[in-house]
């Protein structure tokens, strides 16, 4: 069966891409678009990156790109990969390869000219599709049939593919979350369960990168369920074991209904306990960025906001704490209340309260305390601990008064405090 993506792949018509493909195909060589761009076009999904596979060797890729006036960057030349910037867009170009040796984390490769061997070294059938410059799709592993039924399947023997790189266990569930339907492929699922201990060989950065991509899927709940069933979720994220993933479905529904963007950090918070010590360990183990670590910590130390809390009371909490942590708590509480509201009228009222508070928190702007230490020294105060204590007490009074006292009123209070 002949399949083409011509006419539904605007990106393929790009003149710079066509020039690049033509240059790489001169003199008996071949070049095709490979992987995700072909897959996503066939599945009607957006295409972010366009990768190219070619029979040209890396040095020849560089020479031909420069001849065309494009900018080559040897981003992974030892593995056959050169990034070429053409028309302002980067294209990752890789010479056809076959694995010579693998250790579960990385592979030694040899360059070749056999498209079938190159396809068979990839992970899943839907990721091993190629497209010629005219849009004709080349399928050497049965990927088109799997796309038609949205089935995620390892190429060849699932265990063999996983032993080449144990990250493929997490990729199996990540791609299932994004592209799969129904039940995961049985052989793939069994292989992931049997070889899950291999995840311990992977770097923390690779594990978190895959988990974050999985948690960014439109609805990762089914994938997380199968990960838990296979024991993979506990192996990758032990903090989730006794806490559960039940809140994920309600959260993704709330995101869809209320127009929230898919947020991998919020989804992570939905499946781990709000325990500051354990979250610190999690962040260190998976080597979170500073921003990610701080967000997880502030969420963990933020106390639950009751739905009957007034805006004034919430404003005091927001001033004293971290707004993102409070917002995360409110979003998760609202999502949970929406689920319970189906059978519980009280939960419906709670959802209304959380919705009101969330709207307030999102638009709230932190007020600036009107006084500084210099204001007190101008009144005759001596710099030191006593001045700091007076300033702190005045700020507390200002907060408790709903941030209402202005600078003049606070200066009067400061003068009386100094006299006392």
Automatic annotation (TrEMBL):
Q: Does the keyword Magnesium apply?
A: yes
Q: InterPro entries attached here?
A: Bact_CCA-adding_enz_type3_sf, NT_sf, PolA_pol_head_dom, PolyA_RNA-bd
Q: Which UniProt keywords apply?
A: Magnesium, Metal-binding, Nucleotide-binding, Nucleotidyltransferase, RNA-binding, Transferase, tRNA processing
Q: Which residues form the tRNA nucleotidyltransferase/poly(A) polymerase RNA and SrmB- binding domain?
A: 188-240
Cofactors per UniProt?
A: Mg(2+)
Protein's GO biological process: tRNA processing
Q: Which SUPFAM superfamilies does UniProt cross-reference here?
A: Nucleotidyltransferase, Poly A polymerase C-terminal region-like
What positions does the domain Poly A polymerase head occupy? 31-153
Keyword Ribonucleoprotein present in the record's keywords: the answer is no
Q: Which GO terms describe its molecular function?
A: metal ion binding; nucleotide binding; nucleotidyltransferase activity; tRNA binding
Q: Please state which protein family the record places this protein in.
A: Belongs to the tRNA nucleotidyltransferase/poly(A) polymerase family.
What's the protein name? CCA tRNA nucleotidyltransferase
